[in-house]
Amino acid sequence: MLIIGCDYHPSMQQIAYVDTETGEGGERRLMHRDGEAERFYRELKQRAIEVRVGMEATGYARWFERLLTELGFELWIGDPARIRARRVRKQKTDRKDAQLLLRLLLEGDGFPRIWVPSPENRDLRQLLWHRHRLVQMRTRNHEPTASRGHERRATTQAGTME
What we know:
It is a single chain. The chain is of the alpha/beta class. 51% of the residues lie in helices and 20% in strands. A 5-stranded mixed sheet has the order 3-2-1-4-5. Strand 2 and strand 3 form a beta hairpin. Helix 1 runs parallel beside helix 2. The termini are far apart.
């Protein structure tokens, strides 16, 4: 199995990896714009290599998550705060972040994994959120007249009580 610690950025990713069968490892910087990262992972799939990728949670990696799911690779997403707490030195570089993620993945239960919804679950959540927003818009259109009527009743009742 190939285990990869991935420090993900929107334009590139720095990876540190090790093959658990041979013990060979290395580091690479993969660019996203020219398709280098996608080619790298698709080549691993063609070579029928089992892969586990560990990275910090980020909101900019949806295409990457979908790619790894499509290729059948394991993706472990970690809690950034707990990963940061495990950093020995405060000096932060992309290489050291990738190495830290790899080390945590190799420790077994050392990687602070968080639950992430599946792509299907995310799509369903997006549809529900959209429907919720439509209902909010609809009720907002009806509320002004209803709330004005409520205000009138409240002032009338308050006026008669004095």
